[in-house]
């Protein structure tokens, strides 16, 4: 018996944008950010990401968590603000990137400036 250990990835972002609209979609990304962030710092930190992965039952190695943060950390502070998180989510969506959708189109007015 041969096992297929390949991962199938389905990008739900385009269908979410279709059903929620741009503003609703960004709202959902912002809700995701809020769930993962350190409430005291208003940022997704290594510690908050590690804790939330654990709460979600995900076993993620420390170096993988650090890579996730580094991938989206545009200002070099070692954490993700809301804008960095949303941009990272866009970049990780193959369908949105293939369609040439610009994160700036959605993010310019929808992200809470207090969390940037």
Automatic annotation (TrEMBL):
EF-hand domain sequence ranges: 60-95
Record keyword Calcium present: yes
Statement: the UniProt record of this protein carries the keyword Nucleus: no
InterPro entries assigned: EF-hand-dom_pair, EF_Hand_1_Ca_BS, EF_hand_dom, KIC/PBP1/KRP1
UniProt cross-references to Pfam families, sorted A to Z: EF-hand_8
Keywords: Calcium
Protein name: Calcium-binding protein krp1
Organism field: Stylosanthes scabra
Species classification: Eukaryota, Viridiplantae, Streptophyta, Embryophyta, Tracheophyta
Gene: KRP1_1
